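Incident review: delayed structure delivery

Summary: a single-chain prediction request sat in the queue longer than the usual turnaround. Root cause was a stuck worker, restarted by the on-call engineer. No data loss occurred. The affected request and its eventual output are reproduced below so the record is complete for anyone auditing the incident later.

Affected input:
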Amino acid sequence: MAIRSSRHRTVAVDIGASRPSEPRRWPWPWYVAALAGPLGVLAAGWVVLAALTTVGWLTSPEAELTDALRLAADLLILAHGAPVTIAGQAVSIAPLGLTAGLVFLALPAASWAARQAAGQAGHIDDTGDIWADAEAVALRVGATFAGVYAAAVVIVAASLGVGSWRVLVGGLVVGGIAGLWGASKSVGHDPTHTWPGWLRAVPRALGAALLVVLAGASAVFVTALWLGRERVTDIVVALDGGVPALALLTALHLAYLPNLLLASASWMLGAGITVGDQSLVTMALSDVGFLPAIPVFGAVPVDASPASFWWLVVGVAAGCVAALAVALARPRARFDETALVGGLSGVAAGLLLVVLCALGSGSLGSDRLAHLGARVGELAVFAPTLLGLAGMAAGLILGLVRRPPRAAGASEDAPPADDAPADGAPPADDAATSDDSAAADEATERTTLPG
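Output delivered after worker restart:
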């Protein structure tokens, strides 16, 4: 006789389950956001500058409001590297702080346009995530953003009577950096994912070396301000413009702060700086004449000190950092290879500094202050040489330190056991690199955006 169990199974069924709701999308095509973004960035930048110049207009009874608004537009064009005329003087030194501000202001706009492009070009899976080709989206949105941004800058410059090839180049550079950076970051695209492992370390090495130099330049600048604090204070007191003038001076110095740091880096690496025609400030001498009543010029040293040469250690450290960042990415390289790679990394970092210092130099007129900033020609010799030699030495030392010891009695021509590949098999490093590259290609060929 069969006995029926008194136990019962309880099964819960969710009859209200449904697919994830489709995310809310931008009602217009993605290129509308890519067109409106650059225009909004330039408009926002002009509004901020106009607010500052209007403060100056309010404190100057003889000034006209139209002149203040024109000055804001001139500063906006100057931030893209194009020379403008301010108060009858030709000004070509770009405020890199303002340039960096425009780039970071444009990043959210480029990111938003990229997300809309990915949502419209991709497809939604069962979980609500959006799948799209990240590389294609980043390139398409970045190029569109850069083109629109450059065209808008050229139109504004033409309306002001500024005609220079530097307007177009500056607009393309600023718009391209913001567009490609913002779009790639938004969709998770890494342009270096197909590079070899050691080559992917090069951008990190250059960035690390640049950070070391900027840290040292900041220390130089702060030290100069401290030593010349009395002269700086006297200039501020002599101007006697009240709170509005102090606020404008602060904004002016912040706009040119990257330029000041790059000039300090040029002095720190031995090339020196110029603060006008027939003036020279280096570690060995300081020869300057009359300077305008701008507070930061009070930090210019009046004489040289032999102890200043210790600042060259910062350049040596930057070259070592660049070399180690690349050499450590090649664990099986010989000591001669690490020395070569380290030297090339240091030279590349030095050349990057030369380019940045050239961008941060210029003029504040055509007479006395015809050239301000780094001595680019001399820096093109000092920076790659100093950082390159330091990088080569660091790479050589690293290669010798981690060189594996030979086994006793082993043949000099026999390769190490770890490096000997099996018959018909590729070397371990090549196989690992191939597998890593293939995995990276497969993983980043398409990207998913949370719905």
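Verification: Residues 1-15, 407-445 have pLDDT under 50 and may be disordered.
Action items: add queue-age alerting; document worker restart procedure.
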